[in-house]
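Appendix B, Record 12. Input sequence as logged:
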Amino acid sequence: MIFQRNYVSFILFFKRNNNVLTHATCQTVHEGRIYQLKLFCGKDYPDNPPSVRFQTRINMACVNPASGMVEPSLFPMLANWQRECTMEDILTQLKKEMMAPQNRKLTQPPEGNEEARLDQKGLVLKCCIL
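Logged structural output:
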């Protein structure tokens, strides 16, 4: 199913495994890689931000390397969360963060998922930002 928004286009795949995919581009070390993420929305969403966890290992300034969690204090969109923000906005900002000077050249771990980091409680959409 293709879902278009006025300001960003992306594809939503409604699948059983409920993972999120974002495809990185723009001539960085992330180019050609596919990253899986989980966004977990608690009972207070959208008043409070979702938690965001990379399932695929990634080296980024705002991501805890041990857990894959996006650290709200290091990712302004989560730190300054506003009710009007969407999950789409989070994915778009993460893509911009990948292209930021401090992240675009960082050496990345080998590709692949780590089963130990899978969170079985996450309920999210599977999506690819193009």
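The two ends are 14 Å apart (CA to CA).
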